[in-house]
Amino acid sequence: MFRQGDVLIIPVPQADVPACAPVPRDRRGRMVLARGEATGHAHVVGGPGLVLLADLDDPERMFLEVPAHGRVTHEEHGPIPLPAGHYRVVRQREYIPGAFRPVAD
User: Fold this and answer.
1) Which residues span the domain enclosing 64?
2) Alpha-carbon distance values, 73 to 18, 50, 77, 94 (Å)
């Protein structure tokens, strides 16, 4: 399990990855796991053949397919190496009266 700020990356068996579609890259060509609303900084992942996927039934649920190795980077955190595997990406949420929302970064 890996954590970088408000992003948690959990290894999962390949069989637990639902039907997904690739998440489009941002304007800078990056695969963004989460973007900070307050700072504009982003948690970005990359690696050879690595694919960021979104669940077709719930596009907020994201997964990573890492065939060889990957790396998660952010402007304010140290890089995190990812070994080959499949991962679920979870963004930390907070409770506000009557609802949950992603933690503002």
Assistant:
1) 2-91
2) 25, 14, 7, 23
Identity of the residue numbered 14: Q
Structural domains counted in the chain: 1
Lowest-pLDDT choice from 35-44, 45-54, 76-85: 35-44
Answer yes or no: is 50 within a domain.
yes
Q: What is the DSSP letter of 23?
A: P
CA distance linking residue 67 with residue 71, whole number of Å? 12
- Residue 99 within a domain: no
Helix (H) or strand (E) holding 15: none
pTM, rounded to two decimals? 0.87
Residue 97 forms part of a structural domain = no
Label residue 105 by pLDDT band (50, 70, 90). low
Environment class of residue 105 by beta-carbon count within 10 Å: exposed (0-12), middle (13-18) or buried (19+)?
buried
